[in-house]
Write a structure and sequence with these properties.
The structure is a single chain. By secondary structure, the chain is α/β, with parallel strands linked by helices. The protein folds into 2 domains: 2-110 and 304-367, NAD(P)-binding Rossmann-like Domain (Rossmann fold); 130-303, 3-Layer(aba) Sandwich (Rossmann fold), CATH 3.40.50. 34% of the residues lie in helices and 16% in strands. It is built from 13 helices and 15 strands. The chain has helices spanning 20-28, 47-52, 60-66, 78-81, 100-109, 130-147, 177-188, 200-209, 221-229, 305-326, 328-334, 336-341, 352-358; strands at residues 2-5, 32-36, 56-58, 69-71, 89-92, 112-115, 169-173, 192-197, 215-218, 233-236, 262-265, 286-289, 292-295, 342-345, 348-349. The strands form 2 sheets. The chain has an 8-stranded mixed sheet with strand order 3-2-1-4-5-6-14-15, sandwiched between helices.
Protein backbone atom coordinates (compact mmCIF):
# COMPACT_ATOMS: atom_id res chain seq x y z
CA UNK A 1 0.00 0.00 0.00
CA UNK A 2 1.08 3.57 -0.65
CA UNK A 3 0.76 5.46 2.65
CA UNK A 4 0.85 9.25 2.75
CA UNK A 5 1.57 11.65 5.59
CA UNK A 6 0.51 15.27 5.04
CA UNK A 7 1.51 18.43 6.85
CA UNK A 8 -1.07 19.79 9.28
CA UNK A 9 -2.56 23.14 8.25
CA UNK A 10 -4.60 23.84 11.40
CA UNK A 11 -3.35 26.99 13.14
CA UNK A 12 -0.69 26.30 15.77
CA UNK A 13 -0.63 22.57 15.02
CA UNK A 14 2.92 21.20 15.09
CA UNK A 15 2.30 17.45 15.34
CA UNK A 16 2.76 15.01 12.49
CA UNK A 17 0.91 11.72 12.03
CA UNK A 18 3.97 9.46 11.78
CA UNK A 19 7.51 9.54 13.13
CA UNK A 20 10.44 8.43 10.96
CA UNK A 21 10.63 5.29 13.10
CA UNK A 22 6.99 4.58 12.26
CA UNK A 23 7.66 5.19 8.57
CA UNK A 24 10.54 2.73 8.71
CA UNK A 25 8.29 0.00 10.12
CA UNK A 26 5.86 0.42 7.22
CA UNK A 27 8.71 0.41 4.71
CA UNK A 28 10.07 -2.80 6.26
CA UNK A 29 6.68 -4.37 5.51
CA UNK A 30 7.16 -3.44 1.82
CA UNK A 31 4.86 -0.41 1.79
CA UNK A 32 5.64 2.91 0.15
CA UNK A 33 5.58 5.86 2.55
CA UNK A 34 5.28 9.35 1.10
CA UNK A 35 5.68 12.33 3.43
CA UNK A 36 4.80 15.89 2.50
CA UNK A 37 7.85 18.12 2.55
CA UNK A 38 8.50 19.72 6.00
CA UNK A 39 5.54 17.81 7.51
CA UNK A 40 7.64 16.74 10.49
CA UNK A 41 9.50 20.00 11.11
CA UNK A 42 7.20 21.08 13.95
CA UNK A 43 7.99 17.85 15.81
CA UNK A 44 11.75 18.13 15.09
CA UNK A 45 11.73 15.47 12.36
CA UNK A 46 13.24 16.90 9.18
CA UNK A 47 12.81 15.51 5.68
CA UNK A 48 16.22 13.85 5.82
CA UNK A 49 15.10 11.72 8.78
CA UNK A 50 12.19 10.34 6.77
CA UNK A 51 14.39 9.69 3.74
CA UNK A 52 16.85 7.81 5.97
CA UNK A 53 13.90 5.69 7.16
CA UNK A 54 13.07 4.75 3.57
CA UNK A 55 10.24 7.19 2.92
CA UNK A 56 10.04 9.57 -0.01
CA UNK A 57 9.30 13.30 0.16
CA UNK A 58 6.67 14.90 -2.07
CA UNK A 59 4.52 18.00 -2.46
CA UNK A 60 1.13 18.18 -0.78
CA UNK A 61 -0.96 17.49 -3.90
CA UNK A 62 1.22 14.52 -4.81
CA UNK A 63 0.65 12.93 -1.40
CA UNK A 64 -3.12 13.37 -1.55
CA UNK A 65 -3.27 12.46 -5.22
CA UNK A 66 -1.23 9.25 -5.24
CA UNK A 67 -1.64 7.57 -1.84
CA UNK A 68 -4.11 4.83 -0.98
CA UNK A 69 -4.20 5.88 2.68
CA UNK A 70 -3.50 9.33 4.08
CA UNK A 71 -2.59 9.73 7.74
CA UNK A 72 -3.14 13.01 9.57
CA UNK A 73 -3.41 14.26 13.12
CA UNK A 74 -6.28 16.75 12.99
CA UNK A 75 -9.51 16.75 11.02
CA UNK A 76 -9.36 18.02 7.42
CA UNK A 77 -9.96 21.72 6.98
CA UNK A 78 -11.90 23.25 4.09
CA UNK A 79 -8.89 23.63 1.73
CA UNK A 80 -8.30 19.88 2.09
CA UNK A 81 -11.83 18.68 1.34
CA UNK A 82 -11.36 18.59 -2.43
CA UNK A 83 -8.06 16.70 -2.10
CA UNK A 84 -9.71 13.62 -0.54
CA UNK A 85 -10.46 11.00 -3.20
CA UNK A 86 -13.17 8.42 -3.72
CA UNK A 87 -11.94 5.06 -2.40
CA UNK A 88 -9.10 6.60 -0.40
CA UNK A 89 -8.61 5.80 3.29
CA UNK A 90 -8.33 8.80 5.62
CA UNK A 91 -6.93 7.90 9.04
CA UNK A 92 -6.95 10.77 11.55
CA UNK A 93 -8.83 12.41 14.42
CA UNK A 94 -12.17 13.55 12.99
CA UNK A 95 -14.46 14.71 15.85
CA UNK A 96 -17.46 14.80 13.52
CA UNK A 97 -20.25 15.08 16.10
CA UNK A 98 -20.05 18.88 16.47
CA UNK A 99 -19.09 19.56 12.82
CA UNK A 100 -21.87 19.13 10.25
CA UNK A 101 -19.92 20.88 7.49
CA UNK A 102 -17.01 18.44 7.73
CA UNK A 103 -19.35 15.47 8.03
CA UNK A 104 -21.17 16.42 4.83
CA UNK A 105 -17.88 17.11 3.04
CA UNK A 106 -16.52 13.67 3.90
CA UNK A 107 -19.75 12.00 2.81
CA UNK A 108 -19.38 13.62 -0.62
CA UNK A 109 -15.78 12.41 -1.08
CA UNK A 110 -16.65 8.70 -1.16
CA UNK A 111 -13.58 8.04 0.98
CA UNK A 112 -13.41 5.72 3.96
CA UNK A 113 -12.78 7.96 6.96
CA UNK A 114 -11.49 6.28 10.10
CA UNK A 115 -11.47 8.36 13.29
CA UNK A 116 -8.76 7.73 15.85
CA UNK A 117 -11.13 8.77 18.63
CA UNK A 118 -13.75 6.09 17.93
CA UNK A 119 -11.42 3.09 17.58
CA UNK A 120 -12.75 1.23 20.61
CA UNK A 121 -11.82 -2.10 22.19
CA UNK A 122 -14.35 -4.62 23.47
CA UNK A 123 -13.79 -3.36 27.03
CA UNK A 124 -14.71 0.18 25.91
CA UNK A 125 -11.20 1.62 25.93
CA UNK A 126 -10.16 4.18 23.31
CA UNK A 127 -6.53 3.28 22.60
CA UNK A 128 -5.86 5.94 19.96
CA UNK A 129 -7.42 8.72 22.01
CA UNK A 130 -5.76 7.73 25.29
CA UNK A 131 -2.27 9.24 24.84
CA UNK A 132 -3.61 12.58 23.65
CA UNK A 133 -6.11 12.54 26.52
CA UNK A 134 -3.18 12.01 28.86
CA UNK A 135 -1.29 14.91 27.31
CA UNK A 136 -4.31 17.23 27.35
CA UNK A 137 -5.14 16.26 30.93
CA UNK A 138 -1.60 16.95 32.08
CA UNK A 139 -1.50 20.24 30.20
CA UNK A 140 -4.83 21.50 31.53
CA UNK A 141 -3.70 22.59 35.02
CA UNK A 142 -0.54 24.10 33.54
CA UNK A 143 -2.50 26.16 31.01
CA UNK A 144 -5.13 27.00 33.58
CA UNK A 145 -2.46 28.16 36.03
CA UNK A 146 -1.10 30.62 33.47
CA UNK A 147 -4.61 31.84 32.73
CA UNK A 148 -5.17 32.49 36.45
CA UNK A 149 -2.36 35.03 36.46
CA UNK A 150 -3.59 38.61 36.73
CA UNK A 151 -1.86 39.87 33.55
CA UNK A 152 -3.68 37.09 31.65
CA UNK A 153 -7.07 38.21 32.98
CA UNK A 154 -7.31 35.68 35.80
CA UNK A 155 -7.92 36.06 39.52
CA UNK A 156 -4.24 36.43 40.33
CA UNK A 157 -3.90 33.33 42.47
CA UNK A 158 -1.07 30.81 42.78
CA UNK A 159 -2.22 27.20 42.58
CA UNK A 160 0.03 26.07 45.43
CA UNK A 161 -0.71 28.97 47.76
CA UNK A 162 1.82 29.68 50.53
CA UNK A 163 2.23 28.79 54.20
CA UNK A 164 -0.68 30.62 55.75
CA UNK A 165 -2.32 31.26 52.35
CA UNK A 166 -4.80 28.71 51.01
CA UNK A 167 -4.08 27.02 47.67
CA UNK A 168 -6.35 27.42 44.67
CA UNK A 169 -9.37 25.15 44.39
CA UNK A 170 -9.37 23.13 41.17
CA UNK A 171 -12.54 21.29 40.16
CA UNK A 172 -12.25 18.54 37.56
CA UNK A 173 -15.47 17.45 35.87
CA UNK A 174 -15.03 13.80 34.88
CA UNK A 175 -12.73 11.13 36.26
CA UNK A 176 -11.65 9.35 33.08
CA UNK A 177 -8.20 9.48 31.51
CA UNK A 178 -8.27 13.27 31.06
CA UNK A 179 -9.69 13.90 34.51
CA UNK A 180 -7.26 11.57 36.27
CA UNK A 181 -4.25 13.12 34.56
CA UNK A 182 -5.51 16.64 35.23
CA UNK A 183 -5.99 15.78 38.90
CA UNK A 184 -2.56 14.16 39.07
CA UNK A 185 -0.79 17.29 37.85
CA UNK A 186 -2.98 19.69 39.85
CA UNK A 187 -2.19 17.73 43.02
CA UNK A 188 1.48 17.89 42.10
CA UNK A 189 1.11 21.66 41.84
CA UNK A 190 -0.28 21.54 45.41
CA UNK A 191 -3.77 22.75 44.55
CA UNK A 192 -6.90 21.75 46.46
CA UNK A 193 -8.33 19.30 43.92
CA UNK A 194 -11.94 18.12 43.63
CA UNK A 195 -13.06 15.54 41.06
CA UNK A 196 -16.71 15.11 40.16
CA UNK A 197 -17.52 11.73 38.62
CA UNK A 198 -20.75 9.86 37.86
CA UNK A 199 -19.48 6.34 38.53
CA UNK A 200 -19.02 5.31 42.15
CA UNK A 201 -16.84 2.41 41.02
CA UNK A 202 -14.57 4.83 39.19
CA UNK A 203 -14.43 7.05 42.27
CA UNK A 204 -13.20 4.08 44.29
CA UNK A 205 -10.47 3.53 41.70
CA UNK A 206 -9.48 7.20 41.80
CA UNK A 207 -9.40 7.16 45.60
CA UNK A 208 -6.81 4.39 45.46
CA UNK A 209 -4.89 5.80 42.51
CA UNK A 210 -4.61 9.24 44.10
CA UNK A 211 -3.95 7.87 47.59
CA UNK A 212 -6.70 10.00 49.09
CA UNK A 213 -5.13 13.29 47.97
CA UNK A 214 -8.25 14.55 46.19
CA UNK A 215 -11.86 15.20 47.20
CA UNK A 216 -14.32 13.04 45.27
CA UNK A 217 -17.98 13.92 44.77
CA UNK A 218 -20.77 12.44 42.68
CA UNK A 219 -21.45 14.50 39.58
CA UNK A 220 -24.96 15.95 39.31
CA UNK A 221 -26.35 19.40 38.59
CA UNK A 222 -26.53 20.45 42.25
CA UNK A 223 -22.99 19.30 43.00
CA UNK A 224 -21.59 20.97 39.88
CA UNK A 225 -23.21 24.27 40.84
CA UNK A 226 -21.93 24.01 44.39
CA UNK A 227 -18.39 23.00 43.42
CA UNK A 228 -17.81 25.64 40.75
CA UNK A 229 -19.07 28.43 43.02
CA UNK A 230 -15.93 28.11 45.13
CA UNK A 231 -13.56 27.13 42.32
CA UNK A 232 -10.62 29.10 41.03
CA UNK A 233 -10.22 26.71 38.08
CA UNK A 234 -12.65 24.24 36.49
CA UNK A 235 -11.37 21.62 34.05
CA UNK A 236 -13.97 20.05 31.77
CA UNK A 237 -12.89 16.46 31.14
CA UNK A 238 -16.03 14.63 30.03
CA UNK A 239 -16.34 12.41 26.97
CA UNK A 240 -19.05 10.40 25.27
CA UNK A 241 -17.24 8.38 22.56
CA UNK A 242 -18.09 9.73 19.12
CA UNK A 243 -20.89 11.96 20.38
CA UNK A 244 -21.11 15.62 21.29
CA UNK A 245 -19.85 16.39 24.80
CA UNK A 246 -22.59 17.02 27.39
CA UNK A 247 -23.00 20.63 28.49
CA UNK A 248 -22.30 20.59 32.23
CA UNK A 249 -21.97 24.33 32.88
CA UNK A 250 -24.55 26.72 31.43
CA UNK A 251 -24.12 30.43 30.86
CA UNK A 252 -26.44 31.18 33.78
CA UNK A 253 -24.12 29.28 36.12
CA UNK A 254 -21.19 31.61 35.37
CA UNK A 255 -22.76 34.34 37.52
CA UNK A 256 -22.22 32.12 40.55
CA UNK A 257 -18.47 31.80 39.94
CA UNK A 258 -15.64 33.95 41.23
CA UNK A 259 -14.59 36.84 38.96
CA UNK A 260 -11.41 35.87 37.15
CA UNK A 261 -11.95 32.13 37.65
CA UNK A 262 -10.78 29.97 34.74
CA UNK A 263 -12.63 27.33 32.74
CA UNK A 264 -10.43 24.90 30.79
CA UNK A 265 -12.52 22.95 28.28
CA UNK A 266 -10.59 19.84 27.26
CA UNK A 267 -13.74 18.52 25.55
CA UNK A 268 -13.81 21.36 23.02
CA UNK A 269 -12.95 19.01 20.13
CA UNK A 270 -16.28 17.29 20.77
CA UNK A 271 -18.23 20.54 21.02
CA UNK A 272 -17.24 21.53 24.56
CA UNK A 273 -18.80 20.81 27.94
CA UNK A 274 -19.48 24.46 28.81
CA UNK A 275 -22.34 26.27 27.07
CA UNK A 276 -20.15 29.33 26.53
CA UNK A 277 -17.21 27.40 25.00
CA UNK A 278 -15.93 28.15 21.51
CA UNK A 279 -12.69 26.87 19.96
CA UNK A 280 -9.56 28.98 20.43
CA UNK A 281 -5.92 28.65 19.36
CA UNK A 282 -2.57 28.54 21.12
CA UNK A 283 -1.85 32.02 19.71
CA UNK A 284 -5.06 33.44 21.20
CA UNK A 285 -6.12 30.88 23.80
CA UNK A 286 -8.56 32.67 26.08
CA UNK A 287 -11.58 34.95 26.14
CA UNK A 288 -13.85 36.21 28.93
CA UNK A 289 -17.59 35.68 29.41
CA UNK A 290 -19.32 37.25 32.42
CA UNK A 291 -15.99 37.75 34.16
CA UNK A 292 -14.90 34.11 33.76
CA UNK A 293 -11.82 33.30 31.68
CA UNK A 294 -12.33 30.52 29.11
CA UNK A 295 -9.41 28.45 27.80
CA UNK A 296 -10.74 26.37 24.89
CA UNK A 297 -7.80 25.46 22.66
CA UNK A 298 -8.97 22.76 20.28
CA UNK A 299 -5.60 21.05 19.85
CA UNK A 300 -3.98 21.26 23.27
CA UNK A 301 -1.43 18.44 22.65
CA UNK A 302 -0.15 20.43 19.65
CA UNK A 303 1.67 22.67 22.13
CA UNK A 304 4.05 19.81 22.98
CA UNK A 305 4.47 18.15 19.57
CA UNK A 306 7.63 16.16 20.25
CA UNK A 307 5.96 14.32 23.11
CA UNK A 308 2.57 14.14 21.39
CA UNK A 309 3.79 12.89 18.00
CA UNK A 310 5.80 10.09 19.56
CA UNK A 311 2.91 9.11 21.83
CA UNK A 312 0.44 9.18 18.95
CA UNK A 313 2.57 7.06 16.61
CA UNK A 314 3.06 4.48 19.36
CA UNK A 315 -0.66 3.69 19.32
CA UNK A 316 -1.72 4.39 15.72
CA UNK A 317 1.08 2.48 13.99
CA UNK A 318 -0.26 -1.04 14.72
CA UNK A 319 -3.60 -0.09 13.15
CA UNK A 320 -1.92 1.62 10.19
CA UNK A 321 0.13 -1.53 9.65
CA UNK A 322 -3.02 -3.63 9.82
CA UNK A 323 -4.71 -1.50 7.17
CA UNK A 324 -1.64 -1.50 4.95
CA UNK A 325 -0.91 -5.21 5.32
CA UNK A 326 -4.45 -6.56 4.96
CA UNK A 327 -6.25 -3.83 3.04
CA UNK A 328 -9.33 -2.00 4.32
CA UNK A 329 -11.97 -4.71 4.07
CA UNK A 330 -9.93 -7.53 5.55
CA UNK A 331 -8.57 -5.23 8.28
CA UNK A 332 -12.02 -4.23 9.55
CA UNK A 333 -13.20 -7.85 9.38
CA UNK A 334 -10.19 -8.85 11.46
CA UNK A 335 -10.29 -5.99 13.99
CA UNK A 336 -13.52 -4.96 15.70
CA UNK A 337 -11.84 -1.91 17.30
CA UNK A 338 -10.78 -0.69 13.86
CA UNK A 339 -14.25 -1.36 12.45
CA UNK A 340 -15.71 0.85 15.18
CA UNK A 341 -13.36 3.60 14.02
CA UNK A 342 -14.94 3.82 10.56
CA UNK A 343 -17.15 6.92 10.65
CA UNK A 344 -17.84 7.44 6.95
CA UNK A 345 -17.65 5.03 4.00
CA UNK A 346 -18.98 5.10 0.45
CA UNK A 347 -21.03 8.21 1.14
CA UNK A 348 -22.66 6.78 4.27
CA UNK A 349 -22.26 7.57 7.97
CA UNK A 350 -21.27 4.35 9.71
CA UNK A 351 -20.99 5.70 13.25
CA UNK A 352 -24.33 5.94 15.02
CA UNK A 353 -23.51 8.73 17.54
CA UNK A 354 -22.24 10.92 14.68
CA UNK A 355 -25.40 10.31 12.66
CA UNK A 356 -27.61 11.03 15.67
CA UNK A 357 -25.71 14.25 16.45
CA UNK A 358 -26.68 15.64 13.05
CA UNK A 359 -30.03 13.96 12.52
CA UNK A 360 -28.64 12.12 9.48
CA UNK A 361 -29.18 8.56 8.32
CA UNK A 362 -26.90 5.81 9.57
CA UNK A 363 -25.75 2.59 7.91
CA UNK A 364 -23.97 -0.17 9.79
CA UNK A 365 -20.57 -1.04 8.38
CA UNK A 366 -21.63 -4.67 8.00
CA UNK A 367 -24.13 -3.52 5.36
CA UNK A 368 -21.23 -2.18 3.29
CA UNK A 369 -18.58 -4.84 3.91
CA UNK A 370 -19.53 -8.51 4.06
CA UNK A 371 -18.15 -10.34 7.05
CA UNK A 372 -17.90 -7.40 9.44
CA UNK A 373 -19.19 -8.35 12.86
CA UNK A 374 -22.69 -6.80 13.12
CA UNK A 375 -22.20 -6.32 16.86
CA UNK A 376 -19.50 -3.65 16.46
Amino acid sequence: MRVGVVKEIKKDEYRVALTPAGARELVLHSHDVVVETTAGDGSSFDDAAYVAAGASIAACDDVWGTCDMVMKVKEPLQPEYAKIRDGQILFTYLHLAPDLELTNALIKTGATCIAYETVETDDHKLPLLAPMSEVAGRLAPQMGAHSLEKPKGGRGILLAGLPGVAPAKVVVLGGGIVGYNAALIAVGMQADVWVLERSVDRMRELENMMDGRITLEISNRHMVEEAIAGADMVIGAVLVAGARAPRLITKDMLSGMKPGAVLVDVAIDQGGCFETSKPTTHSDPTYVVDGVVHYCVANMPGAVPITSTRGLTNVTLPYAELLANKGLEEAVRFSKPLARGVNVMAGKITNQPVAESHGLSYMHLSDLIDGVDPSV
